[in-house]
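Session log. Operator J.P. requested a structure for one protein chain; no other inputs attached. Running the standard single-chain path with token output.
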Amino acid sequence: MNLKAIVLTVDTPRLGRREIDIKNKMVSPKLKNFEGLVSTEISDDKGSNLEALVSEIFDPSLSWKDIEWLKSITKLPILIKGLLTCEDAIKAMEVGVSSLIMFQPPFQPWKSVGRSVVYGLATMGEQGVRRVIEMLKDEFEITMALLGCPRVKDISRSHVRTEWDRLRSML
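Structure written below.
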């Protein structure tokens, strides 16, 4: 192999909820580059097996020590994709990462939370409301994980982008 660099994706400690994949019972494709390394023969009776596969192969305990270890076993440049904060970018450079790949993910606000509860009530009564609240809790946990915040107290102003912030960044 003629590898030029290693790109480490760090913005996916947990896969976001993909309703359409669950509804369609999406099956993950056979990944030739994983043959012999991990099993892609994972099934999930709840719908999509993509989330089950990602849970199997992604390691949410990834830390800066892992990057130091990676640097110790390769001479290839290490690039990190998906850092979410300035502090993490600074830390990445401190541990010797060669480069950062930055992008702005699409803004995904919670839409019509109150309306969801009303729809749940209208369709399934109390059980519908419980299901909506469970879904909101799951979405909140996924959002926290994608932000790199294991606890609610880890969420700070730097994780919140308002319309004013968006407009100001355009100036």
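Operator note: Helices lie at 19-23, 50-57, 64-73, 86-94, 113-147, 163-170.
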